[in-house]
């Protein structure tokens, strides 16, 4: 009996409190009433003030942003070349790159030559990277401004030069980029710097002392050619790959470059035109020594590209190991 009285008293207490609260809220919403102890007119004035304040603040912010956008060109950066954060020294990139999930700092290309599953990742990575080159219609502009350039056929303003991946020799998807033959291909690309113009090596007497002899001979032969169109090929940003140490050079084997040993000058300067794709050089390592970790450095050669191995300026480093 006592428990029933306590429960009844408890429920009655809750009901009375809810009834009082509802009356308080209802009374606060009545004209001239108060909401949680604050006069309704005061609440209304505060809400109106903050509505006007934030409306004016938003309008002012949008106006300043609009004025700021008028000073920007969507295709031309405000600071160019030497004034930009990127600077005047383009970097050299390579594909395929190791998965960042394994080690973001890794630059090792390792696989088992007789195991399809082992080299599948590298083949798929290259295929994915080259997909946009095979389907230029996917790029902005849908390929409408693509021009078949050559050294004596330069693009007009607004046009971009076509990059034909069919010229990459044996380094194609159909050939699995030669990974199944334990003679893999690596794709090199020069990083973009808006407005950067390369300064070419056109005089054999100006070639650097540390330039590979084979590349020196190639440049000299072009410079001495009697064909004026052939001499235009001197307008090339050359590349070379080699082992970093004498032992690496011994194990790296012969190397072939497709479609040529460098980036043609008609791809420069980069001006952020719709549909622009960076030129490519496929490096085919024909017979690297299996079971040996080979340190490889690829360099890019132009008068205004500075080389510094410690900072990887003007070069790129990776390791290759085939079991």
UniProtKB/TrEMBL annotation:
Cytoplasm listed as a keyword: no
Main location as per UniProt: membrane
Gene Ontology annotations for the cellular component aspect, listed alphabetically: sodium:potassium-exchanging ATPase complex
Transmembrane segments: 47-68
Protein localization: Cell membrane
Pfam families according to UniProt: Na_K-ATPase
Membrane-protein topology: Single-pass type II membrane protein
Keywords assigned by UniProt, alphabetized: Cell membrane, Disulfide bond, Glycoprotein, Ion transport, Membrane, Potassium, Potassium transport, Signal-anchor, Sodium, Sodium transport, Sodium/potassium transport, Transmembrane, Transmembrane helix, Transport
Protein's UniProt name: Sodium/potassium-transporting ATPase subunit beta-2
BP GO annotations: intracellular potassium ion homeostasis; intracellular sodium ion homeostasis; potassium ion import across plasma membrane; sodium ion export across plasma membrane
Species whose genome carries this gene: Parthenolecanium corni
Family: Belongs to the X(+)/potassium ATPases subunit beta family.
GO molecular function: ATPase activator activity
Known role: This is the non-catalytic component of the active enzyme, which catalyzes the hydrolysis of ATP coupled with the exchange of Na(+) and K(+) ions across the plasma membrane. The beta subunit regulates, through assembly of alpha/beta heterodimers, the number of sodium pumps transported to the plasma membrane.
Lineage: Eukaryota, Metazoa, Ecdysozoa, Arthropoda, Hexapoda
